[in-house]
Amino acid sequence: MSKRSGFSAIEKPQDTKKTLRKLFQYVKGVKWLLGLAILLTLLANGLQLWGPFYTGKIIDLISGPTDLDLWVKLRQLLIVLILVYVASSILLYALSSLMIYTSQKIVVKMRQDVFRKFLAMPVSYFDRHPIGDLLSRISYDIDTINTSLSSDLIQLFGSLVVVVGAFSMMLFISLPLLSVFFISIPLSILTTRYLTKMTRPLFRERSRKLGALNGYIEETLSGFKTIKAYAQQDTMFEAFKKQNDEASEAYYKADYFGSIVGPSVGFINNISMTLISVFGSILFLLQAITLGNISSFLLYSRKFSGPISEAASMIAELQSTLAAAERVFKVLEEPIEIIEEKPQTIEDVKGHVKFTNVSFAYDKDRPVLKHVNLDIPAGTLVAVVGPTGAGKTTLINLLMRFYEIHEGKIEVDGVDIKLMNQHSLRSMFSMVLQDSWLFYGSIYDNLIYGNEHVSKEDVERIAKEVHIHHFIERTQDGYDTLITDDGVNLSKGQRQLITIARAMLADKPMVIFDEATSNVDTLTEKRIQSATQKLMHGKTCFVIAHRLSTIINADLILVVHDGEVVEQGTHTQLMLNKGHYYHLYMAQFA
Questions:
Q1: How far apart are alpha carbons 590 and 572 in whole angstroms?
Q2: Contact in structure between 547 and 485 (CB atoms under 8 Å)
Q3: What's the CATH number for 353-589?
Q4: Which of 58, 451, 453, 563 has the greatest number of CB atoms lying within 10 Å of its CB?
Q5: Residues 6+ apart with CB under 8 A from 214
């Protein structure tokens, strides 16, 4: 059955108790503020409960026999009534301000936990989940929780106080009239439970659809130039329209069925008010109750049924909150990278890398690397070549422990990398990726990222050797020029040169270049090669290259094909063999 045809395709709700327990863990951190909020709620709602009592007293005073002290008594009751409502309003204002502050403390901690969890997760997690959906969890879902905590949590507790207080006062005024609620209350509870059970999965589906829509928007905007170049605006819009319609439909279903709860309970409460008016009139005619008591009972019944209606209306928001909380806690429950309790370390890293019978597969049925054996001496410049999808980047991912190998062993200076701490392992490498990443900040801040101890003289020296000093000096503020929106104010080649200079400044014993010169012109590429050869002297370097002209001078060339290292040697040796490398090289320069 399709999602449009009914509810069967919608995800079932998870354990509500488990979600509430996890939310409570965050609430415990602000328990004193929450205790103060509860106290303010008791005082504010307790004062409000005196309003109907004094209103009934005023009505009985006016409708009773004329007395010389009538106006004095009436003035006193009115003053007390006004003071009660003014004091209650002030307390409710203080309560509202306190809950906004309290909820912000909770969601700030929650966002920190989610962001910290993102940083601790393995790279494979981000390969499996759209970035837009993850952004939705840390922004929209947590905002939803914030809205609920700042208003709904204390409002529900206040409603409980009002309901108990109003019920007690009605019991004191007239037991016969109270019998009406023995019909309306069970009916309200059954209606609310039924509608709640139906709406909960709808709100989870709404959050999921919004995450998918955000992911599509993020993907589209990041590739906007390509979309323009291929004139695919209409195609992309149609795909967006479809996802937007699905998200809108999910919103409509959730809000539609959520909005039914309040009016349904309100309808039941209106029936009970009608019955109270009829029975109250009969009791008044029988002189079993005063007019003031009927008025007070009606006001208390409104206060009694009002919170029930409000609570029913809040069910929709609470379902949305629980659905959002489940998505957030699902992130927090994801496994993080396994950190060795007593990791082995290498004091003086040489850079001797050894692969022994290494096999790996992203999917169990589709192996990417098969029984790879390599022995790379320290200080070797290694080039990894091969067709797209052969497994070149996977070799590097396994070496950096972005993924864990399934079979075999990888060693650095004789130490199994599985026995090492990931942070200490990766700190041995400088890495330059094909997709350059720059953050909002100055050019200087981006150059020293992860190497804050370097001097400005070293920064300028490296910048000159990588041929970016001249263009930096020509910018408006030089090295202090701000890089915005992932470097859109720079050319792609300039961005890549900055990341290369950043890696050079790190001065690590091992260097990885993943097609690092793909976005620069031929002349600049030759200049970079000249600079990097000097800077990489004596270091173990891995270069993933598609331009074979850039790796002719490599000490060792590995040819990867169909998950296996089918050839290895120098450029001259491999050309003489006339195997895979020879055909790749001739295909480029024929």
A1: 17
A2: no
A3: 3.40.50.300
A4: 563
A5: 132, 133, 135, 136, 140
